Each structure stands twice: as structure tokens, then as C-alpha cells.
Amino acid sequence: METHSENGWLGLKAKHAEFIAAQTEILAPPLVPEVRLHLAHESVPLWQKTEEELGEMGLAPPFWAFAWAGGQALARYILDQPEIVKGKAVIDLASGSGLVGIAAMKAGAKSVLAADIDAFSASAITLNAAINSVTMTVTTNDLLSQPLPKADVLLIGDLFYEKALAARVFAFAESAKAAGMTVLIGDPDRSYLPKDRLEKCAEYSVPVSRDLEDAEIKRSAVWQLRPYY
After folding, report:
1. Domain regions of the chain by residue span
2. ∠ CA(194), CA(106), CA(132), 5° rounding?
3. Mean pLDDT, the chain, whole residue set
4. Rounded distance, CA 191 to CA 220, Å?
5. How far apart are CA 143 and CA 140, in angstroms?
6. Range with the poorest average pLDDT among 62-71, 199-208, 211-220
7. Ramachandran bin of 11, using left for φ above 0, alpha for ψ from -120 to 50, beta for the remaining angles
8. What is the pLDDT of residue 63?
9. Cα-Cα end-to-end distance for the chain
10. What is the mean pLDDT of residues 17-36?
């Protein structure tokens, strides 16, 4: 029998899913037309409406409602190089909309753990996986503060925009590499990406919204950690 708290959590997830479906449009990101997502056109109005309509104040920005440039680049790279994930267990860190994880599943991954601490993101990932006919495990646990999960590939899309967060993410990436994982990072030249410790795999011109970025086209690259010697 479900507990009251479980019923409450299920009700919250349903409310989030209804809001996402009502406030977004199903679109394909420009660089990844193979994938469809629930996407918004503007961030601030959606953020305000989220807090007002659902009565949940102090929410994180709606990162889940946009196909960020770094994520698009990484998803494109995975779809074009499916051997990276085919038949493998994948972690999509800070999954957001689920774009990168969905691309990995479409490229033949055995499984994807889509991790994002935002409950709205978890609902968006579930909805987006369904419209793309893929299945992923979704968690709101903070993987950066837990023992490293077992996996073959770690994918990190657009997560180097804050100094403290970037340091934690890179430490997690190094731990994953030391454990034998393939680690790939998609990034549109964010301030705290440690390029001196990375090697570039590919680069793309990604169309993005001026509501999100400082240009309509963001040059975005896919990186891997430099090999140990």
C-alpha cells in the first residue's frame, strides 16, 4: 500500500507533468532533429508562471524547458558516433530536458540514468522519453555527493557555467574516468570549462534563442578528458 507521502509525491509529479505539457510546445532542437522535446520559447515568463500557478516559490530556473547549446552538441556527436554508447550503460548528468540521454538511447545505449536534482526536470525527462519512444531511469539524487554509480559512459552537457559547480563536476568526471568510464562533455565555451585539461573531439554551430544566450549561433564543442600518462 502506498504511504501518504508517496501519494503526495505522485500527485506533485502529475501536477508538474500537466504544467509542462500545457506551457511548452513539442519541437525538435535545431541541431538534433531526430529528437522531439517539450520546449519553451522564453525563460523568464515561464519561470514566473511556474511559481505563480503552482504556488511553489524559490524554484530553480526552468533549465528543463530548453535545448541548451552544449547539450545539443553532445547529443549530435553521440548520434553521429553511436559506437560510443551502443550496448553500454550511460549516465546523463544534469539531464535537464533529457536530450542527451534520449540521444544515447536512440544511438543504441543499453541503459541511461538521467540525473537531475530538479523535480520539474525529472517530469520533463519522463515526458520527453515517452514522446521519443525510449525508456530511461530518472533520478533526482545529487550524484556529485554520492558514491560513483556503475556505468560505462558519462555524458555532461553544458554544466560549467558556475565556478563552484564546475569544480565539483570536473572532480566527478575525473573520478569516472579513473573508474574506466568514457567521459564526454558538451560545452558552448562557458567560463569555467578547464580546457587545458581536455581534448576537443568535435565542434558545431548551434542555433539558440537570444532569450538564453548572447548570440543566435553558439560555437559549441564536445570534449574528452586528456589521457593520463
Report:
1. 4-225
2. 110
3. 87
4. 13
5. 9
6. 211-220
7. alpha
8. 84
9. 55
10. 92
Per-residue burial over 143-158, b = 16 or more CB atoms within 10 Å of its CB, e = otherwise: bbeeeebebbbbbbbb
Q: What is the pLDDT of residue 52?
A: 58
Range of weakest confidence among 8-12, 75-79, 217-221: 8-12
**Whole-number pLDDT of residue 54:** 52
User: pTM here?
Assistant: 0.88
pLDDT at 228: 60
Q: State how far the alpha carbon of 189 is from the alpha carbons of 58, 98, 157, 198, 214, in Å.
A: 28, 21, 12, 13, 12
Residue 192 CA, distance from chain mean position: 18
Place of cell 525508456: 135
Segment 169-186, tens digit of pLDDT = 999 999 999 999 999 999
Give CA angle at 165 (168, 68), nearest 5°.
Answer: 120
CA atoms within 13 A on the CB side of 141: 12
Phi, psi of 145 (to 5 degrees): -110, 15
Taking the CA atoms of 33, 39, 44 and 47 in sequence, report the sign of the dihedral they define: negative
CA distances to 62, 78, 133, 215 from 212, in Å: 11, 24, 28, 9
All residues at 6 or more sequence positions from 46 whose CB lies less than 8 Å from its CB, including other chains:
23, 40, 62, 65
> Under 8 Å CB-to-CB from 44, ≥6 apart: which residues?
211
Question: What is the CATH code for 4-225?
Answer: 3.40.50.150
Q: Computed from CA positions of residues 17, 18, 23, 28, in that sequence, does the dihedral angle turn out positive or negative?
A: positive
